[in-house]
Specification:
By secondary structure, this protein is of the alpha+beta class. It has 7 helices and 11 strands. The strands form 2 sheets. Strands 4-9-11-10-6-7-5-8 form an 8-stranded antiparallel β-sheet. A 3-stranded antiparallel β-sheet has the order 1-3-2. The chain is elongated. The termini are far apart. The relative contact order is 0.11.
């Protein structure tokens, strides 16, 4: 007869796992020495160990394996068990495909941001501008996208109601406190007037003597990745974007602009 070590060696299954399967009622030793407690197995049980391991590799749980290895298993029950496992695997594949798509989207976004910045990166001052705008607050970066969408829809509605043509050209401002805290998100259009259309506020945005920018043709896949790429371009100079961020949007391009300061500040 075979010892538990023999079975483990010949099947590639650990002794701990063999004992676990025994505790679960899947693999009972052919004999147990009453004095030493040593387990003994027959040659035929090697086949059962392989069968259990094969079913585990297919993802079946121990309870399902116990049912599948039951000598009284009928063909309908086997068919039902295999169908259930098929559905589980199909659902997992669908879920993994969704996750894969998201990972691929982020990779494309990072590549897009790096390429955009490499081709269009500039260091230059930013002019002061006056905006007719709407503003709200986001608790962190994850809320900025939703805030921008809501503000843009409301801005367009106010402009159209007051007879201003909607061109699709926007300025977004993100004011992020240096020490952390809520981010003020503003969406507006440049205006020379001191009085804004009804429902909007006038805001004067100060210029920046030290700033950087990069431009993308078309919409960004992920704005956060584009900002990371801009910071990466500044790293060799020991600089980083900070505090107030501008996004200039036209129907054909998106330009990121931000004040820069020493990365050590």
């Amino acid at each position: 007869m075979l010892t538990i070590g023999d079975v483990a060696h010949r099947t590639g299954t650990s002794r701990r796992m063999l004992r676990h399967w025994e505790a679960e009622g899947l693999l009972s030793p052919a004999a147990i020495d009453p004095a030493s407690g040593y387990r003994r197995y027959t040659e035929a049980q090697i086949g059962r160990v392989h069968a259990i391991a094969a079913l585990r590799s297919l993802g079946f749980g121990l309870e399902a394996i116990r049912d599948l290895l039951d000598p009284t298993l009928t063909t309908p029950r086997l068919f039902e068990s295999l169908q259930a496992r098929e559905r589980e695997l199909a659902d997992r594949i669908a879920s993994d495909q969704v996750a894969l798509g998201e990972v691929q989207r982020r990779l494309r976004s990072i590549e897009e941001g790096v390429q955009m910045t490499a081709e269009t990166f500039q260091r230059h001052p930013l002019p002061a501008i006056r905006l007719a705008q709407l503003a709200s607050q986001a608790r962190d970066e994850t809320e900025i996208g939703h805030a921008v969408g809501d503000l843009t829809a409301r801005l367009r509605s106010h402009l159209e109601e007051s007879g201003h043509p909607w061109t699709g050209e926007l300025v977004r401002i993100y004011d992020a406190p240096p020490g952390g805290g809520p981010i003020t998100v503003s969406v507006g259009i440049e205006t020379p007037d001191a009085v804004a259309p009804p429902g909007l506020d006038v805001a004067d945005i100060a210029g920046e003597s030290e700033a950087a920018s990069s431009t993308s043709d078309g919409a960004l896949t992920d704005g956060a990745d584009a900002w990371r790429a801009l910071d990466s371009a500044l790293e060799p100079e020991g600089l980083a974007t900070t505090s107030r961020y501008r996004v200039l949007v036209t129907p054909h391009s998106v330009t990121l602009q931000a004040r820069v300061t020493s990365a050590c500040d």
